Amino acid sequence: MPNVANPLEGKVPVKLPGDEKELLALLDPRTLPRHVALIMDGNGRWAVQKGLPRTAGHRAGIESLRRTVTLGVELGIAILSAYAFSTENWRRPPEEVDFLMNLFVEYAFREIEKLRSQGVRVKVIGCRAELPPTVLAAAERLERETASGTKLLLNLAVNYGARREITEAVRAIARKVQAGELSPEAIDENTIARHLYTGDLPDPDLLIRPAGELRVSNFFLWQLAYTELYVTPVLWPDFDRVDFLQALVAYQHRERRFGGLKFD
Fold first, then answer.
1. Alpha-carbon Rg of the chain, whole angstroms?
2. To which H or E segment does residue 131 belong?
3. How is 165-229 classified by DSSP, letter by letter?
4. How many angstroms separate the most distant Cα atoms in the chain?
5. Number of C-alpha atoms within 13 angstroms, CB side, residue 71?
6. H-helix or E-strand containing 230?
7. How far apart are CA 139 and CA 125, in angstroms?
8. Where are the domains of the chain?
9. Residue 130 near residue 158 (C-beta atoms within 8 A)
10. 10-residue block means of pLDDT along the chain (264 residues)?
11. How far apart are CA 184 and CA 42, in angstroms?
12. What is the DSSP letter of 129?
C-alpha cells in the first residue's frame, strides 16, 4: 500500500514544523525530488466555505500555483506538473467551464513575463484538439515565449485524462506496427512511455494531493507507478510555501524501494 498523508518514520517529527525557516533547515537540497506532480483540488470547496462563488476559488488557486512555482524555482526543482483541467471537467456547468477556459487565457498572457524572468519553461499537455481556439492560441504562445527557460519545466495538464493519454499512445504504436515501422515483439514499457504526453520526462518522484482526497483522479496513471504520495487536507487555494516544504520534508524521509526489499 502506498504511503499517504505523512507516515513520518525516522528523523521526521510526527507533527512537521509550521515555520518556513525550520522546514528549510530540515530540507536536504541533495535529495529533493526532481519531478513533483500536483493535483490542484479544493478550489470550489474553498470558495463555498467562504460564501464566495466557485469562480473565486479558481482564481485563488492561480495564486497558489504562482507561489508553488516560485518556491520550486528557488529550491532547484526541475519539473512541476500541475493538473489544471481534466477531460471529465467538461461535465461541470457551462458557465464554470467557460470561466476556467478564460482564466487559463488570462493566466497565459499575464504570467508570461514573470515566468520568463524566473527561467520557467511551460509545456501544455493534454488533448489539444478539443480546446477552444483562444485557449489553444494562448497555450502555444505560452510555450513559445517561455521556450528558453532552463530553471524549471512547468507542465500544465489541460484537458488531460490519463486513460485518454494511454489510449492515444496505444493507437500511435498500433499505427507504427501497421505501417511496418515497429515490430510487436519490440514493444516494451519504454515504447509505451515514449508515446505518452510526458515521453521525454522522468516519472514524478512525488505527487502532492491537496483537499484530503485519497485518489489520483485519472492523473498520470502510468507515470505514478512508484511515485510517493503525499496527501494534505489543505485546500489548494490555501496551499502555501509552508505546505509545499512540509511535503518535501516528508518525501525526503520516505524509503523508496521501487518494489525491491531492503534488509538490515
1. 19
2. none
3. HHHHHHHHHHHHHHTTSS-GGG--HHHHHHTSTTTTSPPPSEEEEGGG--S-TTSSTTTTTTPEE
4. 59
5. 21
6. strand 228-231
7. 10
8. 30-252
9. no
10. 42 73 96 98 97 97 98 98 97 96 96 97 97 97 98 98 98 98 97 97 98 96 97 98 97 80 53
11. 43
12. G
CB 131 within 8 A of CB 139: yes
Quote the crossing angle between the two packed helices 241-252 and 54-75, to the nearest 10°.
50
* Cell (9 digits) for 238: 490555501
Polymer length of the chain: 264
In the structure grid, which three cell numbers stand for residue 232, read together? 494534505
Lateral strand order in the sheet of 79-86: 120-125, 152-160, 79-86, 35-39, 206-209, 228-231
d(C-alpha 65, C-alpha 69), whole Å: 6
Active site residues per annotation = 41, 89
Beta-strand relationship, 228-231 and 206-209: parallel
Query: DSSP code of 81?
Result: E
User: What architecture does CATH give domain 30-252?
Assistant: 3-Layer(aba) Sandwich (3.40)
**Amino acid letter, 167:** T
For the entire predicted model, the pTM comes to 0.91
